[in-house]
Design a protein that fits this description.
42% of the residues lie in helices and 0% in strands. It is mostly helical. It has one domain (16-28, 36-77). The longest helix has 11 residues, at 16-26.
Length: 78
């Protein structure tokens, strides 16, 4: 705040449960019988399903979604 930046009241990070719900909404199947997969794996699957990645390789997935990716996810789930 000392430099004039916006202070978020809540965290903008997605939880594993949030990502699992998005996976379901975009049609990326994950195993939910036990523990949820790692966040990177779910982000990669989501990005693959919306066409932002060529495959669902977790090593290629960014650590967070970019604004254009969020807009593409929004379009995919509507």
């Amino acid at each position: 705040m000392a430099v004039g930046r916006f202070e978020r009241e809540e965290s903008a990070a997605f939880t594993k449960e949030d990502l699992a719900a998005i996976c379901d909404a975009v049609g990326y199947e994950i195993d939910t019988s036990g523990r949820l997969p790692p966040k990177a794996e779910m982000r990669a699957g989501i990005l693959w399903k919306i066409g932002a990645l060529e495959d669902d390789n977790a090593e290629e997935a960014p650590s967070s979604f970019r604004k254009d990716e969020l807009k593409a996810i929004e379009t995919a789930v509507q």
